[in-house]
C-alpha cells in the first residue's frame, strides 16, 4: 500500500482511517487469521501471487470476518443471526475514535457525572450491538443501547451476556416499552419540538421512539450516536452489488430515509439539550449532511462539527452538534479588560526646526498646535504622521506615513530612532 495518502483532485488529502484505529497501520491479515481460526478458513481465497482475500458479497464471509476480528483484536465474543445488519469493525471503530476526539477537545465543557466514566447512548443498537461492545472494550465507556425489534433486543442482550467483563458497562433498553411508560411526558414535550423545525408533512405518520421518552428524566450522557436507516425503500437499500452486509427493513429503511430519521434526532435533542454533551449521527449522503447541519443550527446548536469516515470504497460522514456554550466563549468572558495606551504623533520638519504634536486618548478632538513641542533635528523638509496603538500590554503597533514627500532613507532612519525611543520609554515604565 505504498505511495502515501491518496489525494483529491483539488490537491487536498483524502480522508483516511482514524490514526488511533487498530487497523490504521495495517489492514487485517486474512491469511494469518485463517490459520488461527479454522471456521474462517473456508471464506479466505489466496491468489497465485499469494494474496489472501475475502468475498464481501457473501454475508456469511463478512459475518465470520467480523466475529474473528472482534474476538482476536478486542477480546469480544459476538454473533448475529442470518439477515441482521453485519457491521465492519474498522469503520465502526472510526466513529468511536471520532467521538473520543470530540470528548477530549476543548470545544465544550464536560457535563457533571457522578461516576466519572464516559457514558454513551446508542440509538438503534441492533442485534450486533457493535458500538457499545467496541466503546466498552476499547475505552471502558458505559452505554445504553436502544432498539425496537424483538430480534435486535434479544441478540444485543446475548452479545452483552456473552462478554461477562462488559456486562456492567452495557444496558440494552427497549425503546418501545420506555416510550409507552413515558406517554404523558411525550404529550408535554411534543409542542416544544414542533416549533423548532419544519413540521412533518404527514402528521399522522407514527415516528419511532428515538431519544425523548427513551432517555429517563434523571439521566445524563456524554454523547449519543446512531447508524440511522439510510434508505427510503428496501429496493434502494439493495443497490450496492459489491457488498453484502445484511440488514432488516427496520435497520435499513424508514419513511424519508436518513434525512427524516436524523431530523427526528435533532428535534429530540432540543428537548434533551441539557442531558447530552454531544449529539452525533452517521450520515450516508453528503447532500443530506449539509441539510442536517443547517437543521442543527436552526434548532439552536451552539457547535456543529462534521467528519468523513473511509472504509474501502464506501464514504460516510459524521455529524455532531451540541447546545452547551463553547468553552472559548467562557474563557473570553473572564479575560480582564485591557488598558490601552494609544496616541497619534504628527511631525513636520522644516529647514529650521521640528514641530511635534502628541495627541492622547480623550484629547483627540483638540488641535495639534495646542499640543506641539519643539525638537532640534538635522533632517530638512519632511512631514509625516505616526500612529501608535498598544494592542496588548507590552506590544505596540506603529504606523508611519509621509504627508507630502516620497519615502526616503531619511524617513526610515527617523522612524527607527522613534521606535528605539518608544521602546526605552516603555521599558522604563515597566521597571
UniProtKB/TrEMBL annotation:
Annotated Gene Ontology cellular component terms: nucleus
Keywords linked to the UniProt accession: Methyltransferase, S-adenosyl-L-methionine, Transferase
InterPro entries (alphabetical): METTL16/RlmF (IPR010286), SAM-dependent_MTases_sf (IPR029063)
Pfam families linked: Methyltransf_10
One of the protein's GO biological processes: rRNA base methylation
GO terms of molecular function: methyltransferase activity
SUPFAM superfamilies documented for this protein: S-adenosyl-L-methionine-dependent methyltransferases
Keyword Methyltransferase: yes
Binding site for S-adenosyl-L-methionine: 92, 124, 147, 227
PANTHER family: RNA N6-ADENOSINE-METHYLTRANSFERASE METTL16 (PTHR13393:SF0), SAM-DEPENDENT METHYLTRANSFERASE (PTHR13393)
Name of the protein described by the UniProt record: U6 small nuclear RNA (adenine-(43)-N(6))-methyltransferase
Organism: Panicum virgatum
Amino acid at each position: 500500500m505504498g505511495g502515501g495518502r491518496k489525494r483529491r483532485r483539488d490537491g487536498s488529502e483524502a480522508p483516511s482511517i482514524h490514526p488511533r484505529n487498530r487497523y490504521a497501520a495495517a489492514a487485517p491479515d486474512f491469511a494469518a487469521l485463517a490459520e488461527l481460526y479454522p471456521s474462517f478458513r473456508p471464506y479466505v481465497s489466496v491468489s497465485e501471487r499469494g494474496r489472501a482475500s475475502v468475498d464481501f458479497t457473501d454475508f456469511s464471509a463478512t459475518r465470520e470476518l467480523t466475529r474473528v476480528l472482534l474476538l482476536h483484536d478486542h477480546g469480544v465474543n459476538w454473533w448475529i443471526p442470518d439477515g441482521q445488519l453485519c457491521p465492519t469493525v474498522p469503520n465502526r471503530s472510526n466513529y468511536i475514535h471520532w467521538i473520543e476526539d470530540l470528548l477530549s477537545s476543548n470545544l465544550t465543557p464536560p457535563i457533571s457525572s457522578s461516576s466519572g466514566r464516559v457514558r454513551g447512548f446508542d440509538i438503534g443498537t441492533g442485534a450486533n450491538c457493535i458500538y457499545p461492545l467496541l466503546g466498552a472494550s476499547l475505552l471502558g465507556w458505559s452505554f445504553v443501547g436502544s432498539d425496537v425489534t424483538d430480534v435486535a433486543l434479544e441478540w444485543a442482550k446475548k452479545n452483552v451476556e456473552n462478554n461477562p467483563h462488559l456486562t456492567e458497562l452495557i444496558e440494552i433498553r427497549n425503546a418501545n416499552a420506555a416510550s409507552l411508560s413515558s406517554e404523558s411526558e411525550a404529550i408535554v414535550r411534543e409542542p416544544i419540538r414542533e416549533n423548532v423545525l419544519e413540521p412533518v408533512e404527514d402528521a399522522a405518520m407514527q415516528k419511532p421512539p428515538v431519544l425523548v421518552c427513551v432517555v429517563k428524566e434523571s439521566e445524563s450522557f456524554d454523547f449519543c450516536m446512531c447508524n440511522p436507516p439510510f434508505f427510503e425503500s428496501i429496493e434502494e437499500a439493495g443497490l450496492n452489488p459489491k457488498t453484502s452486509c445484511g440488514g432488516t427493513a427496520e435497520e435499513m429503511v424508514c419513511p424519508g430515509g436518513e434525512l427524516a430519521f436524523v431530523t427526528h434526532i435533532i428535534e429530540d435533542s432540543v428537548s434533551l439539550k441539557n442531558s447530552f454533551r454531544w449529539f452525533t449521527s452517521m450520515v450516508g449522503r453528503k447532500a443530506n449532511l449539509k441539510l442536517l447541519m443547517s437543521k442543527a443550527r436552526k434548532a439552536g446548536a451552539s457547535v456543529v462539527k462534521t467528519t468523513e469516515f473511509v472504509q474501502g470504497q464506501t464514504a460516510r460522514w459524521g455529524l455532531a452538534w451540541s447546545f452547551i456554550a463553547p468553552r472559548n466563549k467562557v474563557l473570553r468572558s473572564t479575560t480582564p479588560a485591557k488598558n490601552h495606551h494609544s496616541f497619534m504623533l504628527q511631525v513636520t520638519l522644516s529647514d529650521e526646526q521640528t514641530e511635534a504634536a502628541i495627541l492622547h486618548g480623550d484629547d483627540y478632538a483638540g488641535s495639534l498646535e495646542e499640543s506641539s513641542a519643539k525638537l532640534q533635528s538635522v533632517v530638512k523638509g519632511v512631514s509625516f504622521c505616526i500612529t501608535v496603538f498598544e494592542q496588548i500590554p507590552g506590544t505596540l503597533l506603529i504606523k508611519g506615513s509621509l504627508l507630502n514627500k516620497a519615502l526616503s532613507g531619511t524617513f526610515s532612519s527617523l522612524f527607527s530612532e522613534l521606535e528605539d525611543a518608544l521602546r526605552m520609554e516603555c521599558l522604563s515604565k515597566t521597571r
